[in-house]
Amino acid sequence: MADSNNKDTVKKILDVAESLFAQKGFRETSLRTITSKAGVNLAAVNYHFGSKEQLIQAVFARTLTPFCDALEKRLIEHVHSGEKHYTLEELFDVLVLTAAQVYGGDVSRFTLFMRLLGLAYTQVQDHLRAFLSENYGSVFKRILVHIKMAAPDMPPKELFWRIHFSLGAAVFTLSSYETLREIMAEDYQVNISLDGTMKRLIPYMASGIRADVID
Amino acid sequence: MADSNNKDTVKKILDVAESLFAQKGFRETSLRTITSKAGVNLAAVNYHFGSKEQLIQAVFARTLTPFCDALEKRLIEHVHSGEKHYTLEELFDVLVLTAAQVYGGDVSRFTLFMRLLGLAYTQVQDHLRAFLSENYGSVFKRILVHIKMAAPDMPPKELFWRIHFSLGAAVFTLSSYETLREIMAEDYQVNISLDGTMKRLIPYMASGIRADVID
DNA sequence: GTATGTTTTAATCAAGCGTTTGAATTATTT
DNA sequence: AAATAATTCAAACGCTTGATTAAAACATAC
After folding, report:
1. Within chain A, where are the H helices?
2. How far apart are CA B25 and CA A122, in angstroms?
3. What is the Cα–Cα distance from B154 to B173, expressed in whole angstroms?
4. Cross-chain Cβ contact A168/B164 below 8 Å
5. Chain pair A-B, CB pairs under 8 angstroms
6. Is B207 within 8 Å of chain A by CB?
7. Which residues in A162-175 are b (16+ Cβ under 10 Å) and which e?
8. Tell me: the pLDDT tens digits for A110-154?
9. Residue A132 neighbours by CB under 8 Å, 6+ apart
10. Is the CB of A9 under 7 A from strand C?
11. Cα–Cα distance measured from residue B23 to residue B185, given in angstroms and rounded to the nearest whole number
């Protein structure tokens, strides 16, 4: 079993696929482009992953699994610690911190992945949606519980909407981060960081969620 | 010149293409699917529009042109009227009203188009981005001016970010409106309307944009 | 050093794509 | 009614796609 070479090929494919999927989308990235750019044979994808669909899922799992595990651990620990509920800002901070921890400072890979997450919402990949909800749905539900504790006075329906508004703001912004960065540099002569962008998102989302309910 | 039949074919193609593009994306919708569903010949697209790319642009133009014209007219009129600047809420209301006017109550077509707008951001279609910015960039800039008047104390960079956060919230929410509606009905036994959703977006975005700047 | 299982390779397959073509059909003009 | 222009049609073209195959190369174990 040539494990060293094996892992090389698998990793090379995952790296290139992640990058190309984020740049072009799933459908518009061919296995030929991936394998040639990774310097491996065309058949390697089907050999190591089974199919293109399973490669897509593997790309998500590689990042999502450690992130969700780390996040779940933090959330559970906080409940067990007996400390006060998170505020919205604290909760969002935990998300950002956990993301930073998992990515270990590799900003461009993080933005790449946020783009992928955005694509997962907008591109038709039924197998992906099923895969994500099956494997990571429970963590999402756990976050929901913490948001509800942070905004106890908000009517549940209203809260539901505003969480989705926030999700949209975050996914949309982070997935088009590279473009926005360029515009920012051109129009405002300012270089912004990903960290800074996420920090800016937090007060926006928190304030939006807490807005007065008119109804 | 068989104009009546011509317009029929053109309209049939546009209707079907709009719907399919919104459901599946541009790349994953083939001309064969469009033409067969529209009941016209495969070659009709290339005959009437020139290419698939130009068909995509035509789908956007059909809705965007009347919308932007109507919006521009309203904004200019308000400036000339000498009344006070719009508040953020009033400005967003104008956007919603104009959209409703252009769509004339056809909610499903409106949400369809919002999905398309979301796709335009996330799918790689350089020709589309160029087409949109060339034809509708001036209207976008005009809206920016009004937002700046509505939030005069906000530092321009911060405002820039928050506008994009809001754009993300709106596009994301409205483009997945149908799905959210189903979840809402299931989990909360409530039927929500598109109008109601947009109305809910307004205080969220306005409050988010006005959040305290920490810097 | 031979045997065994794993990985890589090049070639090929069937299917789907956007586009083009030239003839047939339909509508308009004279 | 004849001539002309616009539209529709079926068929084909060249190309790219994901997947499969059988042979070659490689690593590991005995």
Report:
1. 3-24, 31-38, 43-48, 52-81, 88-103, 107-122, 126-150, 156-175, 177-188, 194-209
2. 8
3. 25
4. no
5. 141
6. yes
7. bbbbbbbbbbbbbb
8. 778 888 887 787 776 778 888 998 999 999 999 999 999 999 999
9. A60, A64, A120
10. yes
11. 21
User: At how many degrees (to 10) do helices B88-103 and B126-150 cross?
Assistant: 140
Interface of A with B in 47-86 (CB under 8 A): none
- Judged on CB neighbours under 10 Å (0-12, 13-18, 19+), A116 is buried
C1’ C19 / CA A147, Å: 53
Is it the case that residue B175 has pLDDT exceeding 90?
A: no
The answer to whether residue B188 neighbours chain A at the CB level (below 8 Å) is yes
Partner residue facing B165 (CB), from A23, A175, A204: A204
Of B100, B82, B73, B56, the closest CA to residue B198 belongs to: B100
Check A165 against B184: CB less than 8 A apart: no
Which tokens is B17 given? 């293409």
Q: Which residue from A108, A14, A121, A94 is spatially nearest to A60, judged by alpha carbons? A: A14
Q: Sign (positive/negative) of CA torsion B158, B163, B167, B169?
A: positive
**Owner of token pair 């094996």:** A6
**Residue B174 amino acid letter:** L
Smallest CA-to-CA distance from B200 within A214, A87, A114 is with: A214
- Alpha-carbon span B57 to B54, nearest angstrom: 5
Cβ(B213)–Cβ(B158) below 8 Å = yes
Q: What is the pLDDT of residues A172-190, one digit of tens each?
A: 888 777 778 887 888 888 8
Contact of A25 with B27, CB cutoff 8 Å:
yes
Amino acid letter, A203 = P
Contacts of A161 in chain B (CB under 8 A): 173, 180, 197, 200, 204
